[in-house]
Predict the structure.
Amino acid sequence: MVPFSGWNMPVQYTGIIEEHLHTRSKAGLFDICHMGELFIRGSSAEQDLDRLMTCDIKGLVDGRCRYGFLLNREGGIIDDVIVFRISAREYMMVVNAGTVESDGKWIRSNLSSGTDLSDGSANIAKLDLQGPLSTEVTGSVFGSSAVRAIKRFFFINAGFKGVDVMISRTGYTGETGYEMFFSASAAGELWDVLMSFGSVRPAGLGARDSLRMEMGYSLYGHDIDVEHTPAEAGLGKFVRMEKDFIGKKKLLEQAEHGFGRVLAGFVCEGRRAARENYLAKVDNIEAGRVTSGTFSPCLKKGIGLCYIDREFAVEGREITLTRGGVEIRANIRKPPFVRK
Amino acid sequence: MIPQDLKYTKEHEWVRVEDGEAVVGITEYAQSELGDITFVELPEKGKRIEQSENMATVESVKAASEVYSPVSGEVIEVNEALTDAPGEMNRSSYDKGWICRLRVDDAGGIESLMDAAAYENYLKELKQ
């Protein structure tokens, strides 16, 4: 167990590689109770959220959720979140553990008088079941036809022994998977029921990190932060430029005048992995910095993400990742590194 | 659980000294702390290494860690099998997971190392 944003989190149960491969082949169960859940309610909730978020909120229907960013006025990423539309007057926002309070403050300062914000994080448990067998298992617990009907980035309201459970078909692994939100008092019991399936094994933070890296998904505080815009992070597809939102001005400027470094994926030549803060060099000249790096259990090679001068962010470009005398040869590769 | 015939360092390396030669590896405790080992940078054959000098780097999914030589000497053999199967260090830390064999300069440095009983006590203190 390790401390993480005020929570005690399991890094691994049986071993990161085993948990990783099990999630890719069967189903991994993740205890994600640390993440935050903010509720935004009121007659102007939709309008306020649409201005706070980079993605389109007005186009959501009930039961739909969408990934996007909260930006500051300089276009820097305050957090990456998923917004769930419960109804036109009620939304749930799933936020990172380390940013619950700062997100809440920021959102509150940008709400109109007709909108309320409340933080449900302390009372809501979150379990993620991810992997090719996750539909079968989730269906066995909550009803097969209802679960099979959930499309990607949609959610349903289901029940477990009298407790309401919101189930979304979302995740952080690249696999088919579900995220379950429900009263924290039922967490132990639902965990045990899911674990009773032979195909399910627990997976910790370590596997969660290596799984997301194989897909090239960004981790807040490492690959994305207030110092970078979605354009610099290569995440423009989660920004709807046709609408108005906080931070848009900076993005328009960058679209017109360009910017320096961009987030790009890399695959190392061998098993040795470059880690966060390794320097990226091209022709022996510093050109960037690694923000995430690990060993890929599927590729059996080092993989990761780095900010690099835009001119070098091209498929196949040879780079050298170095730190303290260690030199690792790598190539720029567009994620996902593992095809699903 | 802790082999009685080996000597140990505070950095969790083990060494087996026989007839002027030393075989070196990392302990069961070290491998369990590191988790799945994914890469080992082995020392070069023929290289001279001083006691406590960095002799190898072991990487796991979680982190990279240095291995320090328990003795001074010349590297005469390295465990090439670890290049493709570094997981042997997890599965068999005291046997198949050995890192290298050295020709020991003199037995002097070995006296400063812990025996199995002392290492066991040291681990107990660490876990408290």
Remarks:
- The interface with chain B takes residues 11-12, 15-18, 206, 210, 270-273, 275, 294-295, 297, 326 of chain A (CB under 8 Å).
- The radius of gyration of chain A is 20 Å.
- DSSP finds eight helices and 19 strands in chain A.
